[in-house]
Amino acid sequence: MTSHDVTTQTPAAGESGLQAPSPVLGGTPLAGRVAVVTGASSGIGEATAERLAELGASVALLARREDRLKDLAERITAAGGRALAVPTDVTDRDAVAAAQERVARELGTVDLVFANAGVQLISAIGDLEVADWDAQIDLNVTGVMNTVRGWVRDLEEAAAAGRSADLVVTSSIAATRVLEKFQVYSGTKAFLTQLVRVLRTELGRKGVRVASIAPGMVDTELPDHVTDPDASRLMADLLEQIDVLQSADIAETVAFVAAVPRHVNLTEITVLPTAQAI
Ligand SMILES: NC(=O)c1ccc[n+]([C@@H]2O[C@H](COP(=O)([O-])OP(=O)(O)OC[C@H]3O[C@@H](n4cnc5c(N)ncnc54)[C@H](OP(=O)(O)O)[C@@H]3O)[C@@H](O)[C@H]2O)c1
Fold first, then answer.
1. Which residue ranges make up each domain of the chain?
2. Which of 269, 222, 267 is nearest to 244 (CA)?
3. CA of 39 to the centre of ligand 1 (A)
4. For atom 19 of ligand 1, which residue has the closest CA?
5. Cα–ligand 1 centroid distance for 18 (angstroms)
6. Cβ 38 under 6 angstroms from ligand 1
7. Could you tell me which residue, 223 or 131, shows the higher pLDDT?
8. pLDDT tens digit string along 203-223?
9. Among 3.40.50.720, 3.60.150.10, 1.10.10.60, 3.40.50.2300, what is the CATH number of 34-271?
């Protein structure tokens, strides 16, 4: 692996003494890569965009909150990296197509897509919260399909030119776990996990790697949108009782998936806090 510049560093101790910060990669193994990160305005997407840039990639930042994207782009640029804020609602296929054109013009052909934007809204099916069902399906399923549509040609082109090319999707352990009231969210994530399995049959042959990451509990803004008291308590208890994952842990995982040699496809990765039982 050393010939591919995937090196290790000794992680320093974290603030709590329990959570060491995540970096395991060193150097600039992603130099020359052009990445798109959706959901880059907070949480996992923000941390991943920053880490990919730190490791040498140029990064296009997609989400709706333009101010957050601009702040992140400034931070990346100030640290010597290259980033482009592209405010985009990924549920809007035309907007994603426009983003693809802008990124191609300003950063070049994309060879790393992190389709990560997602929302979790929990309710009993009998509550008929149909707006929440639609919101999750629109973003977690259609938003990812729009992202795939936007950049699959770029990925194929990059792979055909002999470059590493990656599509990485954020699924969830909810794709396979049975959690009461999580049915619609779980369904959207199960869609993604299976999507990636099947996409590999077509894209792997063309040299495009496809991966799904299924995190357990990560400390982000995701639970802020949950109004169901049982689900809120479940997540609040996990946050309080165990050393949950930080966004940086998932960022490092995505970076690692992209940094390994071209013939290696880490396809399905579950990342859990060590102490998380479910
Ligand atoms: N946190 C966890 O424990 C956990 C566990 C498993 C899986 N996940 C998955 O991880 C992914 C990232 O979530 P997170 O935990 O980092 O939560 P988060 O901080 O709430 O991030 C969600 C991101 O999605 C973006 N987004 C929402 N609607 C969008 C739209 N229409 N178009 C473009 N971007 C949109 C948000 O930005 P804007 O509001 O600015 O658009 C935000 O950047 C999600 O797919 C989530 O399901 C999280």
1. 34-271
2. 222
3. 5
4. 43
5. 26
6. yes
7. 131
8. 999 999 999 999 999 999 888
9. 3.40.50.720
